[in-house]
Design goal:
Elements lengths: L3 E5 L5 E6 H7 L3 E9 L5 E6 L10 E2 L2 E3 L7 H13 L5 E12 L5 E12 L11 E7 L1 H10 L6 H21 L1
């Protein structure tokens, strides 16, 4: 049976479920999760999406992204997928949500209400090769500059939210100081 995604309205109110590929072909708005893991040096862990992924293959992206299953809370889905994709278990905090829409190169449509989580982990990930073919720790300022120079090397959703991610990290540092 095909994986299902949770269909939502613009307020993130659940309105149904649909097959994942059907939702990406039709452009149905559905719930998603994006995880950003930082180390103690405040570097962000990026993954390079596996060549076998059905969209955005071979592109650099945030640490982990996926969809919650029907009746699964976003926080639980985020912890599950972070373990499955990158072999990392850590505390995650939801930071914000945003909606983005993009027509991808293979004519699939990303139309997601994305819940963004931050976590902290020191050490190397153990990526699932079906999900990620490479990884690296990067400084956020370097990433912002590289996204400006080479946007084609990154997932659309990373570009869509990176400025808000950077602003949240700045707010977090200000609160701690």
């Amino acid at each position: 049976m095909e994986d299902q995604v949770i269909l939502v309205d613009e307020n993130d109110t659940e309105i149904g479920v649909e097959g994942k590929m059907i939702a990406h072909r039709s452009g149905s708005l559905h719930r998603a999760i994006s995880i950003f893991i930082f180390d103690s040096a405040d570097r962000l862990l990026l993954q390079k999406r596996a060549a076998s992924k059905y969209h955005s293959a071979g592109l650099w992206s945030n640490t982990c992204c996926s969809h919650p299953r029907p009746r699964e809370e976003c926080a639980r889905a985020a912890r599950r997928r972070l373990r499955e994709e990158m072999g990392i278990a850590c505390e995650l905090d939801v930071k914000f949500g945003f909606v983005y829409r993009a027509v991808l190169t293979n004519h699939l449509i990303e139309n997601e209400f994305d819940h963004v989580f931050f976590g902290r982990h020191d050490g190397d990930p153990v990526p699932n090769p079906d999900e990620a073919e490479d990884w690296k720790w990067v400084d956020l300022a370097w990433l912002r500059a590289d996204l400006n120079e080479r946007p084609h090397a990154y997932s659309f959703w990373l570009e869509a939210c990176i400025d808000r991610v950077i602003a949240c990290r700045e707010e977090d540092r200000t609160r701690v100081a």
